[in-house]
Design brief:
By secondary structure, the protein is an alpha+beta fold. The protein folds into 2 domains: 2-308; 321-457, Reverse transcriptase/Diguanylate cyclase domain (Alpha-Beta Plaits, 2-Layer Sandwich), CATH 3.30.70.270. The chain is 66% helix and 9% strand. The chain contains 15 helices and 7 strands. A 5-stranded mixed sheet has the order 2-3-1-6-7, with helices on both faces. A two-stranded antiparallel sheet has the order 4-5. The longest helix is centred in the middle third of the chain and has 31 residues, at 280-310. 37% of the residues are buried. The mean pLDDT is 79.
């Protein structure tokens, strides 16, 4: 039954806890350790558990990254709230670190939740990290100077103060792009609403703090945990088939790289304009871009190798039937001929000496045929003891080539101490623009074999 799934029960418990927290705040307006420290952060913890318990159809990268994001955010919230109630203080750096780590994890989760993939390639992962680190750090860096005039504190504190709204803006902008490029679904509605709720609470908190209007434990704080719960719940629903192009992801990563390079260039031209710590994400972005380049080159080489192998005969390393047929399609506009060759007396070789000797004979036949052909000819093994050749040129020259090919088999092969003699029947079809070139060559080859002509040209 559906109710046996653990995440369904967790969602109901989390919803009850959220409702209890809202009611408790209304009944007990004064700050309370249980309401503000325990119950508030317990809801964030349940959001993490819901994400980590998401069903199998959910992208696991998305579920795990958001689960840890919600857990880390709840830890940061617990640390900062603890300092509001107890004399034993936890250094603010712990909560600041947790809040800062939250954004790249959510960025990764959101970007993955709009796809149906259950795995993520190295390039996709690197693109996501480059976009998250690059855009967030660069935007924050360029807002830092004007923000220094408004915020109090040192540059690191101001950096953290504007990092959060910049992170929210980047996330909401990314969701808007995905939302426009994908079909509407209940999952996308929950995800968008959750991000808007979380971002709104963040932006209101910063505005209220700047204007000395923020009250600890106010009802607006619940926008954070409501957003976390909606985001976690969205992961329990299937996403529609994504229309999001991977090119957009790679282009965005390229823009983030250019922006990070610009940031470092400005820092080199005007030393001291940016604090040193803000340059670290720029270096990280560029380093990740080089790693991405190496993965891209490796994948490209692999793809090329796979395409070559798909069109290559494994035994002789000659082109295979697929390659020959592909070439015939472009051969129709050129003057030339197709030769089909079938070995005579090859089957007794396998029966007498075994397939290992037969394979070696085929390899040496391929070598002899190759030496007898002009450079522009394409020799392919079509399977078994059959070969095909595309030759450019006049009809007269192709007969000379066919006779030369027969001549290569006029003397025996010496294989593992065995002397093996075979022959070949060759069918030739001249290219006259007709679509049945392969069929005509095949008919000519069988006529040569049946009538013992050696070579038959149609």
């Amino acid at each position: 039954m559906q109710f046996s799934r653990p995440y369904l029960g967790l969602k109901w418990i989390a919803a009850v806890l959220l409702a209890s927290h809202l009611v408790s705040r209304w009944i007990f307006p004064e700050n309370n350790i249980f309401i503000d420290l325990v119950l508030f952060n317990l809801i964030g913890l349940f959001a993490a558990i819901i994400a980590l318990s998401a069903p199998a159809h959910t992208d696991r990268v998305s579920a795990i990254s958001f689960g840890f994001a919600a857990l880390i955010w709840s830890m940061g919230s617990f640390f900062s709230t603890w300092n509001s109630f107890f004399e034993i203080q936890i250094p603010n750096g712990f909560s600041d670190f947790c809040y800062a780590i939250f954004y790249p994890l959510v960025f990764l989760s959101v970007s993955r939740s709009f796809t149906q993939k259950r795995s993520i390639s190295a390039l996709e992962l690197l693109d996501t990290v480059i976009i998250a680190v690059g855009f967030t750090s660069v935007l924050t860096a360029f807002f830092l100077k004007p923000a220094m005039l408004t915020f109090s504190g040192n540059s690191w504190q101001v950096f953290l103060s504007i990092l959060y709204p910049v992170g929210d803006i980047v996330l909401v902008a990314m969701v808007a792009v995905y939302f426009l490029l994908n079909p509407f679904s209940f999952q996308s509605l929950l995800l968008t609403t959750g991000l808007l709720s979380f971002a709104s609470s963040d932006l209101f908190f910063i505005w209220a703090s700047i204007n000395d209007k923020y009250e600890f434990g106010s009802i607006t704080d619940d926008g954070w945990i409501l957003g976390l719960l909606l985001l976690a719940t969205s992961l329990t629903y299937s996403s529609p088939k994504s229309r999001f192009s991977e090119k957009i992801s790679s282009v965005s990563a390229t823009i983030a790289l250019i922006a990070s390079s610009t940031l470092l260039g400005i820092a080199a031209i005007s030393p001291g304009y940016f604090p040193n710590f803000i340059l670290i994400p720029g270096f990280i972005t560029i380093a990740l871009a080089f790693i991405r380049m190496s993965f891209a080159l490796q994948e490209a080489n692999t793809a090329v190798s796979e395409r070559v192998l798909a069109r290559t005969d494994e035994l002789t390393t000659l082109p295979n039937r697929r390659r020959l047929i592909s070439e015939i399609q472009s051969f129709a506009v050129r003057k030339g001929s197709l030769l089909l060759l079938d070995l005579d007396g090859f089957k007794p070789v396998n029966d007498t000496y075994g397939h290992e000797v037969g394979d070696k004979v085929l390899q040496q036949v391929a070598q002899r045929f190759s030496r007898a052909l002009p450079n522009n000819a394409l020799l392919a093994r079509l399977g078994g003891d059959e070969f095909g050749i595309l030759v450019d040129g006049s009809n007269e020259s192709v007969m000379e080539i066919a006779l030369a090919l027969r001549g290569t088999l006029s003397y025996p092969f010496l294989i593992d101490g065995h002397e093996v003699s075979i022959g070949v029947s060759i069918g030739i079809a001249d290219n006259d623009g007709a679509a049945d070139l392969l069929q005509r060559a095949d008919n000519a080859m069988y006529a040569a074999k049946r009538q013992a002509l050696g070579v038959c040209q149609l």
